[in-house]
Amino acid sequence: TSPIAWLRTRFYYLLIRLYFDHEFSIEEFTRGAKQAFSVVSKLLSQRKLDLLEELVSAEVLQVLKEKISLLPDSHRDALAADIDAIMYTTEGDVRIYYDDDGIKFVSILMCFWYLNGANLPDEVPGEAKVFQIVFGDENTKEKKHLLTANYEFQREFTEGAKPDWTITRIEHPRLLE
Asked: Rounded to whole angstroms, how far apart are CA atoms 23 and 80?
């Protein structure tokens, strides 16, 4: 990320700690986001959408129900991310906002890069190249794809609101479009 974006996100983390959650830690949040990403992506892959109701917003769940039913098996398999297969994680954007009723929200977009062994074609729809990594020697080749996903986490910080983060956006580019 650019130095300006890095400084901006650090400033927002400071605001979150000062005004919303004195114990907020981006390191702890990132660990939880990785776990949530792994669980949600596996449930998506297995089409167990009813188990996502407490983790994902109702609007996102409705869109997922429509999209998952149309996916080919290879793309559905590629959605699953084992927590040990997450190669890199970074925050994409942090927002703090209030609605017209004075309700306070914090939103953090997390970007994940993960390895997956799904049987994807070399070219996926949209003619975007998927990176492939081959492990092992000639006899035991294992091909993995380096895939990306963006998950947005949102939490309401209004007094009396549940202290839970909810996923309000799920993007698996070239897979879940």
From this structure: 31
